[in-house]
Specification:
Number of strands: 9
Order of helices and strands: HEEEEEEEEE
Strand content: over 45%
Largest sheet: 8 strands, antiparallel, barrel
Radius of gyration: 17 Å
CATH topology: Lipocalin
Helix content: 10-25%
CATH class: Mainly Beta
Strand order of the largest sheet: 1-2-3-4-5-6-7-9
């Protein structure tokens, strides 16, 4: 009897995580802004996370770019977080973010040039900036 209850509890938990553990996480939805200090200058960025896993990024590229986001565990800080991915004309960029009470901390920004397989980390002059929730 105990084994059966444990199996039901396991499958119920697994089903719940699969149904509700993706980018529909409402606590991340909203607008975040902050400053990224890079080798080629300072960028004031705004990140909008919408329902359904849609994202938009302005201030990083000449134009606003559309992308997607999904909830992920930040392996470095062991905190809940998310990844936001955007495709630009010559490369794809991925923001790895961890959750903090004031907003989202940029743990890593990775770039992949079109046609290349190597994902490269973009080095920031000011490491791990905070994007504050608006």
């Amino acid at each position: 009897m105990y084994k059966r209850i444990m199996k039901v509890a396991f499958f119920t938990t697994l089903t719940f995580l699969l149904l509700f553990g993706c980018s529909e996480t409402p606590e991340y939805q909203g607008t975040y802004s902050g400053i990224l200090v890079m080798d080629d200058g300072i960028s004031e960025v705004e990140l909008l996370l919408s329902r359904g896993g849609e994202a938009s990024l302005s201030g990083f590229h000449e134009t606003e770019v559309e992308g997607e986001w999904k909830a992920e565990m930040d392996l470095e800080s062991k905190r809940p977080g998310l990844w936001a991915t955007f495709v630009l004309p010559t490369y794809r960029i991925r923001f790895e973010l961890s959750s903090e009470s004031e907003g989202l901390r940029v743990q890593r920004i990775s770039l992949r040039m079109k046609g290349k397989t190597i994902l490269r980390t973009l080095q920031l002059k000011k490491a791990k900036p905070l994007l504050i929730r608006q």
